[in-house]
Amino acid sequence: MAAVSDDQSGFAPDDDAPIGYMKRTRDYYAAIGYTTPYRWAHYTSAPFQPLKKPLNQSRIAIITTAAPFDPARGDQGPGAKYNGGAKFYAVYDGDTSEQHDLRISHIAYDRTHTTATDSGTWFPLAQLKRLAAAGTIGEVAPRFFGAPTNRSHRVTIETDAPEILKRCRDDKVDAAVLVPNCPVCHQTVSLVARHLEANGISTVVMGCAKDIVEHAAVPRFLFSDFPLGNSAGKPQDVASQAFTLELALRVLESAPGPQTTVQSPLRWSEDAAWKRDYSNADALSAEELARLRREFDAQKEIAKGLRVA
């Protein structure tokens, strides 16, 4: 019998698979001269808190890694270069009854394939309010919470996660939707989700970095195979954003146990070539790598100044 070709069998290309962000970022930083590999948080089991109330009676909070816009902190607009000056280093909160301008210029989202023009792709407050009005959830929590994107596991686990838990308890939150953007963001919210869940608050992570979230072993995870920065749906596509949050809430409500991952059926595009680009050191020249090292060092100095301020 003649062999059947991949084209005839209908197989997808081998690289049309979730990006391995842990390896990709390790290789990238090694290529620009940082030879000590970062250790990603790794657990083999996760805490699990079933919803204590039906979803339509539950108070739901959003936890975000986006930062409030501050015009004094440089370019934070759509397509802005990585801006370490816009980072924040302490948990913050915001009144969900008000409008908020949250941006992601301070983190390493996919600047090649998305431009951060629509905050609905990383901050699903409008969609959550819509679901509260429709009776799908009981209510939106009075505050949302900002989780600092921190490379230090210790600071996230010992300082930031307990502070977010305290504020959730103060607001009588039943469950939280956590929305990361960059690779380290995905680790940060995974650690926060674990802490909340271990202390009685149900969680679901909505994210685009499958390997990082599953490596950290979270209770519930909705994976969208989109470029980083689009964990809550496609830009300028309200239907996509609505579907993504609704699916995340179904995972929150119906997951049978910890480490439940559900993949969204939505595709970014029919062409998966975008997956080859993010922090791909193999595609960069020596000159480009040297330039990126200089830029990264400069941003580190800016961030260091903010941490000690």
Describe the protein.
Helices cover 34% and strands 13% of the residues. The chain is built from eight helices and ten strands. The chain has helices spanning 6-9, 21-31, 125-133, 153-170, 183-198, 210-216, 238-254, 286-308, and strands spanning 59-64, 67-68, 92-95, 102-103, 139-140, 143-146, 175-179, 202-207, 220-223, 260-263. It is globular. α4 crosses α5. Strands 1, 3, 5, 6, 7, 8, 9 and 10 form an eight-stranded mixed β-sheet that branches. Strands 2-4 form a two-stranded antiparallel ribbon. It has a domain at 55-263: Rossmann fold. The longest helix is centred in the last third of the chain and has 23 residues, at 286-308. The chain is of the alpha/beta class.
Annotation keywords:
8 helices, 309 residues, disordered N terminus, globular, Various_sel_PB, 10 strands, 34% helix, single chain, oxidoreductase, Rossmann fold, Glycine reductase, oxidoreductase activity, acting on X-H and Y-H to form an X-Y bond, with a disulfide as acceptor, alpha/beta, two-stranded antiparallel ribbon
Could you give a short account of the major beta sheet?
8 strands, mixed
Give me the count of strands. Answer: 10
Please name the CATH architecture of the domain at 55-263. 3-Layer(aba) Sandwich
> DSSP helix count?
8
Report Rg.
Answer: 19 Å
Chain-averaged pLDDT: 91
* CATH homologous group name of the domain at 55-263: Response regulator
pLDDT under 50 segments (min length 5)?
1-5
Pfam family, one: GRDB
InterPro entries: Various_sel_PB (IPR010187)
GO molecular function: oxidoreductase activity, acting on X-H and Y-H to form an X-Y bond, with a disulfide as acceptor
Protein name: Glycine reductase
